[in-house]
From TrEMBL:
This is Oxidoreductase. It comes from Seohaeicola zhoushanensis. InterPro entries: NAD(P)-bd_dom_sf, SDR_fam. GO terms for biological process: fatty acid elongation. It holds the Pfam family adh_short_C2. CDD domains: SDR_c (cd05233). Belongs to the short-chain dehydrogenases/reductases (SDR) family. Gene3D superfamilies: NAD(P)-binding Rossmann-like Domain (3.40.50.720). GO terms for molecular function: oxidoreductase activity, acting on the CH-OH group of donors, NAD or NADP as acceptor.
Length: 262
């Protein structure tokens, strides 16, 4: 039997990037997939149902959860909806952009977990994978995005304890720099340098959306049946490489310093 046969996965932000790659992978495993997104970039092409929704609109999310519960009760929730933040100084990062980071990521994740996870817990089974970031584990010039992502990891652990007795697992994936339309926009605008990002990771490359999707599918599915409350980086070794800058950075097999990538 296919791994996700008879499962119904709801994926916020499933219209693009990591969410779309996850939707595609779960569809390949024969899951029914429903995408919640501001825009349907590609979900319907892969046979997913689509609901236009802003994850920070808790009432709208709850209404969709109520409707899906009556039609095909969701058994998996993946919260991928998100927007990347400009790397501004605090003086230039205004409160409206900061509030938006908290609203889309933290409030949006909580709203989805509360509406879908609460119903799973009442039914006695389900699996949730939230999306944090390496930016919520280390620090960087992302004073809204980073704290929101750190809070998502923390929230996920709390919900794992809350709903574990009801048979619902909650795990969190923390991607590194992943080649999605969101990252492409930052590269195109010159705000990010692809060679520098790749060189900062132990594997000296960026992450593919399909690689993050594999980790999400693993945690969401039956192979991870005893795993809950974890935060799993999928970052090509970005987190382990960072501290090496104090010693001159990463080095090659002969011990010579590795320069930047083109
Ligand atoms: P993406 O832009 O390709 O996809 C994000 C999707 O979320 C889009 O379809 C967008 O329409 C949707 N979305 C945005 N705001 C929404 C809202 N308020 N309500 C509903 N949908 C909304 O981006 P991505 O890179 O695939 O990012 C997916 C997740 O992964 C985000 O949470 C992001 O923060 C996180 N992440 C990305 C990277 C990276 O390098 N790309 C790294 C770490 C974490």
């Amino acid at each position: 039997m296919a791994e996700f046969e008879n499962q119904h996965a709801v994926i916020s932000g499933g219209g693009s990037g990591i969410g779309l790659a996850t939707a595609r992978l779960l569809r390949e495993g024969r899951a029914r997939v429903t995408v919640l997104d501001l825009a349907d970039s590609g979900a319907q092409e892969i046979g997913a149902a689509f609901h236009r929704a802003d994850v920070s609109d808790a009432e709208a999310i709850d209404a969709i959860a109520e409707q899906l519960e009556a039609e095909h009760p969701p058994t998996i929730l993946v919260t991928c909806a998100g927007v990347l933040q400009r790397t501004r100084t605090p003086e230039k990062l205004g409160l409206s952009e900061w509030d938006r980071m908290i609203a889309v990521h933290l409030r949006g994740t909580y709203a989805c977990c509360r509406s879908f996870g609460g119903r799973m817990a009442r039914r006695g089974a389900g699996s949730i994978v939230t999306i944090a970031s390496v930016a919520g584990i280390g620090t960087g010039p992302l004073h809204g995005y980073g704290p929101a992502k750190a809070a998502i990891a923390h929230l996920s652990k709390g919900l794992a304890a809350e709903w574990g007795p009801s048979g619902v697992r909650v795990n969190c994936v923390a991607p590194g720099f992943t080649e999605t339309p969101a990252l492409d926009r930052g590269l195109d605008a010159g705000a990010l340098d692809g060679g520098r990002l790749a060189a900062a990771s132990a594997l000296r490359r960026l992450v593919a959306p399909a690689e993050v999707a594999q980790a999400i599918a693993f945690l969401a599915g039956p192979r991870a049946s005893a795993i809950t409350g974890t935060v799993l980086p999928v970052d090509a070794g970005y987190l382990v490489a960072g501290d090496w800058s104090a010693y001159g950075g990463l080095r090659d097999i002969e011990g010579a310093p590795l320069g930047p990538l083109a």
